[in-house]
Each structure stands twice: as C-alpha cells, then as structure tokens.
Predict the structure.
Amino acid sequence: MEPIVYYQSTSFLSCYPEIVEESFYTAVNYAIEKYPEETCGVVIRKRDLVTRRLSKVEVLFHRCSNKAEDKERDFKIDPHVALGYRKSGALVAFYHNHTDRSECIYTTKDLRVQKANNLPSFILRVNRVKFISITVIGGGLWRTRGRK
Ligand SMILES: [Zn+2]
C-alpha cells in the first residue's frame, strides 16, 4: 500500500516548501474556475538551462488540458502538453482535482494510475469558491526523487 497523506489547504505548502506557490495557486484557481469539471497537470522539478542540474527549490505545477470524455468524473492529461513541460525539468508528480460533489478523496482508479506511473499523485479538492484539501498518494517517492 502506497502512503496516503491528507492535508488541509493551509498546511500543504509548509510540508512541500520546494513547490513554487504561485504555480500551485494558479492550478488551484483554475480548478475552481472549471468547477464542476476536473482539471489536471504535471509537477516538474525545474532544470537549470545552463548547468543542466535539477533545482532543489523550484518545483512547479503546470496545467494540462483534461481530455477525458466525462470531465466531471474523470481526467486524462493531454500527453502533448505534458511532454512540452517535461522538457523543462524532471517529472516528479502528477496532479488532478476532485470537487466537493464527489464523496471520495481518491478513487480506486487514482490508486491504480499512481501505481502504474510510480510517481506521487496530488489530488486537490475544491468547491465552487475555494480550495478545501489535498491528498497525496505515494508521497514518499517525491522525497527520494527530489534528492537527485
Ligand atoms: Zn481522481
């Protein structure tokens, strides 16, 4: 069983100080804007263009369009958009959001997809006006990969 950690909206960023806040809130605001649809994207540890080294402190959330048929219940990351972002650094996680209309904070499909990708998966939860919480599946891997 992969570790699953639940954070209230306010405590998440203090546990992940590498995440660039502005990029995170851009993803959160977009999820609120698209309510009740799910939104999704990739989380990238930025690579320095000159030294080619991965940044220890810059991890960015990047939005990808949701290509799922039923966007209110499912998500499918646009692979072309994701590939573009992957050129800027190392892929360290995926994210998508749920809304307050669904009961679950993660689904069996979410668990399956996380396991198949072997990367942490962030699941943001929003309602019509605000960010409620975030669930991290497989968060231990983030720490290991982050120390490269
Ligand atoms: Zn989900």
Observations:
- Strands lie at 4-8, 40-47, 54-64, 89-99, 121-126, 131-137.
- DSSP finds five helices and six strands in the chain.
